[in-house]
Amino acid sequence: MTTSLRVGTRAPRTVAGPPPTADGGPPRCPASACDLVTVPARQGLVAVEILRRSAVEGAAGARAAENMGPVLHDDGCDTLGFLVPPGTAAAWDVPGSTCTETDGRGLSLDPAPPVEGSDWLLPPGDTDLATDPAVLRRALGEAARLIAAADNCR
Fold this sequence. Notes:
29% of the residues lie in helices and 16% in strands. With 154 residues, the chain is α+β, with helices and mostly antiparallel strands.
């Protein structure tokens, strides 16, 4: 049985995403209040690698890695879920992905998997940082282009 991380869908609206913290750092995700961006596993894994790679490449990349929060995967390995700040779902419009408001429905930043049939790919650490939606949007776009290029080379 495959368990999807999707907890619903929502029509995108054109509203600004969540603001950064007062010190200009990545948005924080209060316990049990993050939204969840769900993507196909292949695209999500490539996006995680893009974010990790950019951290190694320099100061701008370090900012990208700093803005990557916990990532979930389902046991069927069909989807990955990136925790993003509350309010992201209101303006999320990336094709091939879904962003849902969780409103605290069973989602927590506890090391235990928050949803039955899922586990952490990147578990929460000592902070409650969420993935920066702008950084995630760029990484998912680059991942989609890389996958399309690879598929067209066959």
